[in-house]
Design brief:
two-stranded parallel sheet; 16 helices; 2 strands; 2 domains
């Protein structure tokens, strides 16, 4: 159904790509899925030691490469290329996780291969946190392989406030492994209270609310409606939302590029908490780049995201003092 001015509804204009506005990353992912590794090689060569960006790029590239032989081809041509070794390790982890979810008989072998690949990558690139982040990701699906806090200690020796590392740690101690909600909140709040200004680690308490909401609501639409209002409107939730906004998004210390999942977590929490004015610049930064989570917590992702964006974008700016 078209709007009164003949323009398509917002959901039709959304772009569903976790690469967001990073066209080089999006292109590299497409090429890897098609079996070509050159764009990925060029992209990773320019990233440098921006560990948060590098980990995110590696993750998306590995997800794209998992169904092709592009990484193996790159490795065969350049066996000592660190980026090739690191990407092969992340790809091996993705394959092992997908195999386990499918309950395939090859899962134990793929987990062993992923562990071996991560250790090889860690030896070749001793200062890079990526192999340890990859092992943390593997731990959630293969809890007998290692202890998450020990792996996180290895990540932090290389990058003390690694964004993905903390996200993986929360997943390892969260609902996916039967952990306590209180442990997730304790870890998230500890990390956020100690992280430097401008760090995306400040959004971790928002991740904890998502985890708690999923546990409490399950598949019940009624419970999701009730808990959705209660979860983010409580006094302690509003304090966590305000801290995340001020310490990360609104901080002058925030440096780009800002990753799309963090923006969506922030926009979602502000919307659910009723901070529509503060949410407006977050939605503006998101633009048309949609993600399924966390919007799918409340229904069909495109519809919920579009409704939330419309509500916040039409909020007038506060009067100037």
């Amino acid at each position: 159904m078209r709007g009164s001015q003949g323009s398509p509804p917002a959901s039709e204009r959304l772009i569903w790509n976790p690469a967001g506005p990073d066209r080089d990353l999006a292109t590299a992912c497409q090429d890897l899925a098609a079996g070509r590794f050159r764009p990925a090689k060029d992209l990773l060569a320019t990233t440098g030691r921006n560990w948060d960006l590098r980990c995110y790029q590696m993750l998306l590239l590995a997800q794209a490469a998992a169904a092709s032989a592009a990484v193996e081809r790159w490795r065969s041509e350049e066996p000592e290329n660190r980026d090739a070794v690191l990407l092969q390790a992340r790809t091996a982890v993705i394959r092992a996780i997908r195999s386990q979810r499918a309950k395939h008989h090859s899962t134990p072998a793929l987990i062993g291969l992923a562990e071996k690949s991560c250790l090889e990558a860690a030896e070749l690139a001793p200062g890079d946190p990526t192999p340890w982040v990859a092992r943390l990701q593997l731990y959630v699906s293969a809890p007998d392989e290692a202890k998450p806090r020990e792996l996180m200690a290895q990540v932090r020796r290389r990058d003390p406030w690694n964004r993905e590392g903390f996200h993986r740690l929360l997943a390892a101690i969260g609902s996916a492994t039967g952990g306590a909600v209180s442990d997730v909140f304790d870890m998230a709040r500890w990390a956020s209270s100690n992280a430097p200004a401008g760090s995306p680690v400040h959004v971790l308490p928002l991740v904890a609310y998502v985890d708690g909401f999923q546990r409490e609501s399950g598949d019940s639409a009624r419970a999701r409606l009730i808990n959705g209002d209660r979860q983010w409107a409580a006094v302690h939730a509003r304090l966590d939302i305000e801290r995340a906004y001020q310490s990360w998004f609104a901080s002058k210390a925030r440096a780009g590029p800002t990753l799309l999942p963090d923006l969506h977590l922030m926009a979602h929490a502000l919307w659910k908490g009723g901070y529509f004015t503060d949410a407006k610049p977050v939605f503006e930064e998101i633009g048309r780049y949609a993600l399924t989570m966390p919007w799918s917590l409340h229904g069909q992702a495109a519809e919920v995201f579009s409704r939330a964006r419309e509500r916040c974008m039409r909020t007038p700016a506060p009067p100037s003092s």
